[in-house]
Write a structure and sequence with these properties.
This protein has one domain: UbiA prenyltransferase (Tetracycline Repressor, domain 2). Helices cover 75% and strands 0% of the residues. The relative contact order is 0.12. Helix 3 (45-56) runs parallel beside helix 8 (158-178). It is built from 13 helices and no strands. With 308 residues, it is mostly helical. The chain is globular and about 55 Å long. Residues 1-20 have low confidence and may be disordered.
């Protein structure tokens, strides 16, 4: 199937009415949460709290923590919902994703749109309850959440745009506590940006062949397996450098350094799992290891700040 045929198949799939009986707006909530992998919020939430802990030089208030969590939930839910809605036609044409909720007829587009709107409303309310700068910057975050889902149609740098989306978590949490931006927040945000970009490049290896045929853009489709692996390693090297710089900029001590070292070792293990382009253990590399990385950085940062 050439590129034009793949695009036409995707377009037709997006226009077709799904077979079966899709869930309604409210009865489909469980299906929607599963479709957007709500449980994977663990990737970004610990880094958000790392930003909050650094900003507060200790624990943020319960008020701040509560609204930071709601802002994170709203932002990620809206982002994943938009991705599933915008890419429904492409997902239907891709053998790996054709069983996702919208192509499989488990959710209607209207139901997903309603939950996206509710999630965006939650994000804006949470931003308003935190401070004026959070509310002022919320539309900027929403812009990147929307544009990410279209990036694969015109640029191979979609992985970096996804990184920007998740980098907003620690940066936004810092702003939520302090009402301003500081160097430690920027360093942590850059670390998260390249951490996400790196593992997203690895994840995109699964769709290398499909993306090439469908005329979609990604680092693996552009550089091939070997080039993609090198690009992911470079991204994660930058992450390690930024985490090291963060320790110095924020005046953190040996406990944080131990956590940053553990994160570096976990990143190395992630690349060892997919060495040579072996995707048989990609789920372990993507979901398990990255969850440990975000939690480790948060826990070691928190202990360091509290001890010192």
């Amino acid at each position: 199937m050439d590129r034009e045929a793949a695009r036409e198949t995707a377009a037709q799939a997006g226009r077709e009415t799904p077979a079966g009986r899709p869930a309604g707006i409210f009865s489909g909530l469980r299906v929607f949460l599963e479709a957007i992998k709500f449980s994977h919020t663990v990737f970004a939430l610990p880094f958000a709290f790392t930003g909050a802990v650094l900003a507060a030089q200790g624990l943020p208030t319960l008020y701040q923590a509560f609204w930071i969590v709601l802002a994170m939930v709203g932002a990620r839910t809206a982002a994943m919902g938009m991705n599933r809605l915008i890419d429904a036609g492409i997902d239907a044409a891709n053998p790996r994703t054709r069983n996702r909720a919208i192509p499989a007829g488990l959710l209607t587009r209207r139901a997903v749109a309603v939950w996206i709107a509710a999630s965006l409303a939650l994000l804006l309310v949470a931003a308003r309850m935190l401070n004026p700068l959070c509310l002022l910057l919320a539309p900027v975050a929403v812009f990147f959440l929307v544009i990410y889902s279209y990036c694969k149609r015109f640029t191979s740098l979609s992985h970096l745009v996804l990184g920007v989306c998740l980098a907003a978590a620690p940066l936004g949490a810092w702003i939520a506590v302090r009402g301003s931006v500081g160097l430690p927040a920027l360093l942590l945000a850059v670390a998260v940006l390249f951490w996400v970009a790196g593992f997203d490049i690895l994840y995109a290896l699964q769709d290398l062949e499909f993306d090439g045929k469908a005329g979609l853009f990604s680092i693996p489709a552009r550089l091939g397996v070997r080039g993609a692996l090198m690009a992911a390693r470079l991204c994660h090297l930058i992450t390690v450098v930024m985490l090291s710089w963060l320790g110095a900029a924020a005046g953190l001590g040996i406990v944080y350094l131990a956590g940053a070292t553990l994160a570096a070792l976990l990143l190395a293990y992630e690349h060892w799992l997919v060495r040579g382009g072996d995707l048989s253990r990609l789920d372990a590399a993507f979901f398990l290891v990255n969850g440990y990385i975000s939690i480790a950085v948060f826990v070691f940062t928190l202990v360091d700040v509290l001890v010192n």
